Fold this sequence. Notes:
It is built from three helices and three strands; from the N terminus they run αββαβα. With 126 residues, it is of the alpha+beta class. It has a domain at 8-86: Cation efflux protein, cytoplasmic domain (Alpha-Beta Plaits, 2-Layer Sandwich). β1 and β2 form a beta hairpin. The protein is elongated, with a radius of gyration of 20 Å. The mean pLDDT is 89.
Amino acid sequence: MVDTGATAEQLEEITNTIAGVEGVEAYHDLRTRRMGQRLLVEVHVLVGSQVTVSEGHMTGDRARADLMRNHPYISEVLFHVDPEDDASHHEKTILPSREELLRRLEQRWQGLDMEPPVERVNFHYL
């Protein structure tokens, strides 16, 4: 068995579609795999680093919908949303979990008179 992907022409069409989606700043790790006459597509889309998870996911959903609508030879699209360009990162640094970071912050805040009190903490990992 031979595993094949998109043709050069299809790749150009696919990349033009992805690049044209509002909110997609860049893309990388584009992979295609042929399954019969149809294609499976996987891609990482780069969105603004300050957008919410739901907004980033909505951008990926728009990219998926545009690909499926404009290219009938695509049967499925799997996207991964990145808030930073991780194309060149070979090793991923695993940072502490939210629970661990909150525990550490609460230890540091003990004894501080904070007005107004902290109501919510948002972490931004880059």
